[in-house]
Amino acid sequence: MPRGRYSLQDPHDHAPVGEERFQCAPGPTGWRYVSATHAPGGAPTGSVDLTLDALGRPVRLELQAGGWRVRGAALHGVTWVRTAATGEDAREGNAPARAFTGASPAFLVATARLLRLTPDAPEARVRLVAFTPPVLAPRTRDELWTLTGTEVHTEDGAALTVDAYRVDDLETGERHTVHLAGDVVLAAPGIELEELDSPPSDLTGHDLMTGE
Questions:
Q1: Spatial distance between the Cα atoms of 91 and 52, rounded to a whole number of angstroms
Q2: pLDDT higher than 90, residue 181
Q3: How far is residue 195's CA from residue 138's CA, in Å, rounded to a whole number?
């Protein structure tokens, strides 16, 4: 059950945005990721709670940021409810998309898990609904993911498999590279892994985290 910390920066000017402290774990029914985000000064800014099923579909999502909360799941595409933290101004949404995305590194792992790209089938287009802090307003976007390489690194007798993906935003034309090791993001624009207390899981573990 990896626990760790990501530092978050603006992907364009690299200005510090904050940090995300996380834990994640696989299990026979899927994968779960929970985290808390903080501003550079340490003030709490939000949280992420994402559970995937065995096929990589989001069966439960809860985001909090900027006084807003989003709860969602894969239902008739994807369905969500966005409310103010007070419970007011609730609005339900639905889109013919396959999953969710956003600022958290969790969504990069989740999309890779959903697509399951291989050297024989290295490319896939996917429609996602993005929720971006601080207001978590939904935006549908299409991305093209390409598995560009896989490397196995051996250190102290342990093997670590690292997958590299090229991700194209098909609306803006922006392109970036993501490096994943199991359920941990090693490098991506605006994301740096600063701490990790145990090796990444390979998403074939036996115990899914429980609790709220």
A1: 23
A2: yes
A3: 30
Rounded Cα distance between 86 and 143, Å, is 34
Contact 101, 178 (CB under 8 A): no
Element (H, E) at 80: strand 78-84
Token reading at 193 = 């892994």
Helices (H), ranges, the chain: 106-115
Q: How far apart are CA 39 and CA 20, in angstroms?
A: 9
pLDDT at 23 exceeding the cut of 90: yes
Q: Which amino acid is at 88?
A: E
In angstroms, rounded to a whole number, what is the distance separating the alpha carbons of residues 189 and 178? 8
Using 50, 70 and 90 to split pLDDT, how confident is the model at 203? low
Q: Among candidates 3, 66, 7, 54, which has minimal Cα distance to 194?
A: 7
Q: What is the pLDDT of residue 103?
A: 94
CA distances from 93 to 75, 86, 97 (A): 11, 19, 12
